[in-house]
Amino acid sequence: MVLNDQEPVIARLRRHGRILLLPALAFIGVVTAWGGVAPRLSELWMIVVFWIVTGAAVVGLWFIPLIAWLGNRVVLTPRRVIVHHGVLVRSRQEVMLSRVHDVTVRQNAVQAVFGTGDVLLNTGAEKPVRLYDLPKANLVLSAINELVDAQAPLSAQLRRDDARWGNTGLI
To answer: How many angstroms separate the CA atoms of 26 and 30, rounded?
Structure first.
C-alpha cells in the first residue's frame, strides 16, 4: 500500500471492533422485534408507526455508530502518523515521527483483556496525541518506537547505551 505521494503505508488501524458490540446487539433486538411484533399489528397506522420507530432505531443505534467507527482511522508510515476523524466534517492530523519524544500505551482493565490500548505520542507540545483503543497496542508501540529510532539514529543510540549501561539519568 502506498499513499498519494509514494510514501509506503506500514499499517492502517481503526479502533477495536468491540465498540460495535452494543450496536450489533441493538440491531439484533430491532430485527427480532420486526419478526415478533410486525405480524401482529392489524391497523395501518400501527404498522406505519412501527416501521418508522424501528427504522429510526436501526439508524440511531446501529448505522450511525458503524459509520462513526468507519470514519476514524490511523495510518502509520515511515515518516509520520496520520489520524483521520469524522464523517460529515473531516479532520486530518499529521504527526511527524521526527518530532515524537515519547510513546506510551495506556490500558484500562477491559482494554487489557482484549489486548488493546490508547497509544500516546508525546511531541513536546501541551498534550500528547492520543490514538484511542487501538488493537495490539503493544505491537503498535514497538513499531512506532522503531520508526522513531530510524528517524533519529543518534538519540536511539544514546537510549540503547543508557539501557545497556544502566544509566538512569541521575548523577
So the answer is: 6
